[in-house]
């Protein structure tokens, strides 16, 4: 089709609108625009589009085969001149006619826009899962979407045109039309069907006047199903949150174990080898020698490193709770078990479980643990489903397990299960050559923690540390260095700084005290510490700190000497 060739005279507001409208039309070719103001909006826009523009409209008229000149200035002289100079076959559309044409085109455009929106809306309404029903102010049903027919079984053709006051007089739509108020979450049966639904309905207000109402509803069973799904998801989320709170991965690696003494090297070499296998490891050694540190390092060097490292302190958990702590419990297993709980063995699946203070586990649980070690399966407390796990076990104790076996307090078969690889961490007094490296490592990390700038220790301070026996091992060394660094302002720590902290122990051993069995001495010190700090959890924590033993060890010893109820 040949295009209509058009020239526009006047590029102000009117001319610009004409230009914008016509340039979108396929059948129109705009030859150019003229305006005495070269900054007129139509001129600027046409320039951007690469269309010819001129200050002199006579230039435009010179173009051959011009079909129409649209004059938008409304200036009589311009109109007159154009009438004279246009070619015979060129029509002249003056301002008034141009305005009319614009009004028609605008209306057409609005109609197109309306059709587009209508198309989009009907696509949305048709694809909705919820049913929609619309009625006018008289109750005549004007629209239902496909979901309406799906849920109610009533075809669209049958429903549209009915009156809602007859079709569903008790429904939400009728209520809104009667009251003019929004209805929320009303459960009803859709009139003419058996569908049990939950509806929300609201008035349709146009220019402040209520014109009708719309109702959106869902099948009740759909909602119930959704709620069921939600409940399941909530349970899963709760379980995962529970798990996340407990799961940790190993915090330390072999690089964090400081010292190069042959005694320590022997342990590390054995531990490194065991990390490559899945064998159960039993770590023995006095309190504070780094048994837990070694367990972390073994996990971190093993194939299981990406999976959980779960620590259970067998001495810190009351016997009655230990089993459920280990294996979890099923819902309703005991009063208060309102939901099931996952145990440490399940949490450790794929990873490592570290059973600290294993020597303090009761005999019943020892039997259960033996079964887990043998078969890697167990049942939750109060549950009957067998749970299979893949867990690597590392156990540790500062107690003499052989002695406990002799006393009938530790199962021999469990001992042999556990000590597939047995590593005994040496006490610090047996590897004093590691002291300088440990001290320097501790100073560096405490400088960071305390914001200090300690550079090292003097020779005489080193002598003090070397001459001391370190019954609390590395933990005690850590505590001493921290206490000194908190109080000292010097960059180099001297004997003077240390003596008051380390000397406490030397003095007590050097003092002329009556000799007594060590156990009795220990009991005396524990009683003294508890009476000083109190028999509360916090008091025990501080007592353990003062005695340079772990809290778990203190609990152990308290159990042994039965001062748990000790009142000072
Ligand atoms: N060789 C070492 N290098 C660096 N730090 C160490 C070393 N050995 C122990 N430690 C540190 O000493 C502290 C006590 O170590 P850990 O808790 O591993 O001892 P433990 O033998 O498990 O003690 P307990 O039997 O009382 O539980 C920890 O802060 C640990 O990081």
Automatic annotation (TrEMBL):
Domain Sigma-54 factor interaction: 257-486
Pfam families assigned to the protein according to its UniProt record, in alphabetical order: AAA_lid_14, HTH_8, PAS, Sigma54_activat
Keywords linked to the UniProt accession: ATP-binding, DNA-binding, Nucleotide-binding, Transcription, Transcription regulation
SMART domains xref list: AAA, PAS
Coiled-coil regions, chain positions: none
All copies of domain PAS, residue ranges: 117-165
GO molecular function, one term: sequence-specific DNA binding
A Gene Ontology biological process term: regulation of DNA-templated transcription
Cleavable signal peptide: none
PANTHER family tied to this protein: C4-DICARBOXYLATE TRANSPORT TRANSCRIPTIONAL REGULATORY PROTEIN DCTD (PTHR32071:SF57), TRANSCRIPTIONAL REGULATORY PROTEIN (PTHR32071)
Name of the featured protein: Transcriptional regulator
Organism: Pelotomaculum thermopropionicum (strain DSM 13744 / JCM 10971 / SI)
Organism lineage string: Bacteria, Bacillati, Bacillota, Clostridia, Eubacteriales
